[in-house]
Specification:
This protein is an all-alpha fold and about 450 residues long. The protein has one domain. The chain is about 85% helix and about 0% strand. The chain contains 17 helices and no strands. The radius of gyration is 21 Å and the shape is globular.
């Protein structure tokens, strides 16, 4: 990432990530599709109603491990292999500790949290059976994301896609098995997800061990280093909390949605799935920029960092237009992917399409969030991503509890766009201040 065309490198790195993200979305969508088509609309609503809680914990894992990989990427760019291996070992230890804490805390809180947001009684127990299992197996998500982030930090964005593809196929098979053959309903698709993620994590670990000798850890690498662990947490936890803060906003919007009943919960859930599916290039190019920025920061090449941010913005803008056209054109066919056209109310389809058509106009500010937030994290900043997440949270909450009063469900559809615009347009100014400050320093900002 420190030599050659920035645009070409970013695309070459991000396109495999994009396909990996698509598989990841399909991975999570399969749970909703299977219960929606083989169990029923209430089961679909139950799984969908947990989306914010799932995003909160799984997103925490993604942000944490992406933060860990920032230091590894910087050390790799600086060609300091000893420090890189030590950081890898401490990242594994930190991931074990965080997995245990997350699993225990959220398994205890799962049902009270669902009650807190007024989840409809006809779906609350199915929702809890699903999300409690996801929480209990959170370690599988943490370690898959850790090992994938490590591979991306050293420039390998293709292997995680292959592992995810294997895991996605396995997830589909297990979903069908645990819903049709062994009729466990919502619990079954959660069990399938945990098993598939665990296998993906194990495959990733074995691959790193065999294919990257620079990550072969010695006894001295495993010696506990509190100072380094604190450094890792200082980058990782703000990144993790930024996802969780965004998830809190999603949960609060879910609370507003729950008041409309389980049919609207189902429609909104499917609409969000479609939105996530068509916008997966944004996190991919953002992750590419993070790795690009981290490696060039390690090499001290600030002019190249600026070039990378500019190229990424142009790529994102084109992707946003393409994503909008796909979303608005295919909203109805995508909706029927999740629901049986013979048994689903036309009103549910109408509300699903309304949500997709509304948010599609605001994909450029959403893309700006991904590239500037993740790019600044690659430059070692934990504060800017946190500021962005808090801004997004505040505006999402305000919109969710004010707009529906006047506009009903239409107001709910504008809650996310309001948050994207507020956070997306503030981030570039934060980035310019950060890069100017870094150019005056002579050492890595960790």
């Amino acid at each position: 990432m420190t030599k050659g065309s920035a645009t070409r490198l970013l695309l070459a790195f991000s396109i495999p990530l994009f396909f990996g993200n698509l598989f990841q979305q399909f991975y999570s969508m399969v749970d909703t599709i299977v219960v929606g088509r083989f169990v029923g609309i209430e089961a679909l609503a139950a799984v969908g109603s947990t989306g914010g809680f799932s995003f909160m914990v799984v997103g925490f894992a993604q942000g944490l491990t992406a933060g860990f990989s920032v230091i590894i990427s910087q050390r790799f760019g600086a060609k300091d292999m000893d420090a890189m291996r030590k950081s890898y070992a401490m990242s594994i230890i930190g991931s074990v500790l965080m997995s245990i804490v997350l699993a225990v805390v959220f398994c205890i809180l799962s049902l009270p949290l669902l009650r807190l947001i007024n989840t409809p009684e006809n779906i609350i127990y199915d929702a809890n059976s699903y999300i409690a299992i996801i929480y209990g197996g959170i370690g599988t998500a943490v370690f898959y994301n850790l090992f994938s982030s490590i591979l991306r930090a050293v420039g390998d964005s293709r292997s995680p896609v292959v592992f995810l593809l294997i895991s996605s196929v396995l997830n589909i098979v297990l979903d069908l098995f645990f819903v049709i053959v062994v009729p466990l309903g919502c619990s079954g698709v959660a069990i399938a997800t945990i098993i598939a993620q665990g296998i993906s994590a194990v495959i990733s670990f074995i691959y790193i061990k065999r294919k990257f000798p620079m990550f072969h850890l010695s006894k001295s690498d495993w010696e506990f280093d509190m100072k380094l662990l604190i450094r890792l947490m200082r980058i990782g936890i703000p990144g993790a909390v930024q996802f969780s803060v965004c998830a809190v906003g999603v949960i609060i919007v879910q609370a507003a949605i729950n008041g409309f009943g389980s049919d609207t919960v189902a429609a909104y859930s499917v609409g969000c799935k479609i939105e996530n599916l068509v916008t997966q290039f944004f996190p991919a190019i953002g992750m590419g920029l993070s790795t690009f920025a981290g490696q060039n920061l390690g090499a001290g090449n600030f002019a190249r960092i600026r070039k990378g941010f500019k190229a990424t913005f142009m790529i994102m803008a084109v992707a946003a237009v393409v994503s909008m056209l796909i979303a608005r054109t295919l909203a109805i066919p995508f909706s029927y992917l999740f629901m049986d056209s013979n048994t689903t109310s036309p009103e549910i389809i109408r509300e699903t399409v309304q949500y997709v058509n509304t948010v599609a106009w605001f994909f450029i500010p959403l893309g700006m969030i991904y590239i500037y937030r993740t790019g600044c994290q690659g430059l070692g900043s934990g504060i800017i991503p946190m500021f962005s997440s808090v801004t997004e949270l505040v505006f999402r909450v305000i919109a969710a509890f004010t707009l529906p009063i006047a506009f009903g469900y239409t107001g709910i559809c504008f809650a996310s766009p309001a948050a994207w615009m507020a956070a997306g347009f503030a981030l570039p100014f934060c980035y310019f201040r950060l890069i100017k400050r870094l150019e005056t320093r002579s050492s890595l900002p960790i």
